[in-house]
Amino acid sequence: MQKNWFQTWFNSPYYHLLYRSRNNAEAELFIDKLCAFLSPPLNSKIVDIACGKGRHAIYLNKKGFDVTGTDLSYASIRFAKKFENPKLQFFVQDMRNLFYINYFDFAFNLFTSFGYFDKDADHINALKSFRKSLKKNGLLVLDYLNAEKIAQHLVPKEEKKIEDITFYIERKIANGKIIKSINFTAQQKKYAFTEEVKDFRLADFTRLFYAAGLEICHTFGDYNLNPFIATQSDRLIFICKKTGC
Questions:
Q1: pTM of the predicted model as reported, rounded to 2 decimal places
Q2: Where are the domains of the chain?
């Protein structure tokens, strides 16, 4: 069976090479701002869903929280496991099938680690899985790109040279998706990968959250938690509460 784009690309060493400049300081600032806003007690249990190599989870753990990181990428989880301790664990898991129920106080899904699937039913199932993992009145933090601003300022083509590899990147919006094509040659072999996330806007998320039993409490537009402005904000960040039991 053919693998989805995220199953191959996220497990590739070239994915981590292309995005190696991701700013840990920015990630830690975001976590600091969230913790100041949410005021989680130190005994809080937090799950970082689609955690990648664990930069947010590791920092949350350093702040004293009991953290679980999950990701579909074996390569990322293998790396993250080097940092495990009694209050920090990592597991390979599909976000649509988390194995925790009524366990966490907070669920984090950060840095556009959502919107990967073709069908809305899969996105709703993922959100239902997030919801099930939370205790009663638990909170979900979901951080997504601002598709409206991206549509206005799309850069169709770009080249990035990292070490001895030139990445040729093309971007487009088609069929309800924001699509990035990545082509390069490494060790005399040609590679082609794709990133695709759904062109979800505020109204789309409102509908998806409602279907999954989640209620939007707050929206923000950047990692400093400034208000969301559709035409200006870099991010679309939600804090949602689990409704019902």
A1: 0.94
A2: 5-145+201-242, 150-196
How confident is the prediction along the chain (245 residues), in pLDDT tens digits per residue?
557 888 898 889 999 899 887 778 888 999 999 999 999 999 999 999 999 999 999 999 999 999 999 999 999 999 999 999 999 999 999 999 999 999 999 999 999 999 999 999 999 999 999 999 999 999 999 999 999 999 999 999 999 999 999 999 999 999 999 999 999 999 999 999 999 999 999 999 999 999 999 999 999 999 999 999 999 999 999 999 998 76
Q: Which two tokens stand for residue 150?
A: 């991206």
5-145+201-242: in CATH 3.20.20.70 = no
Tokens of 27: 């990630």
Nearest to 230 by CA among 158, 152, 164, 166: 152
Angle at 192 between CA 91 and CA 27, to 5 degrees: 45
Q: Which amino acid is at 192?
A: A
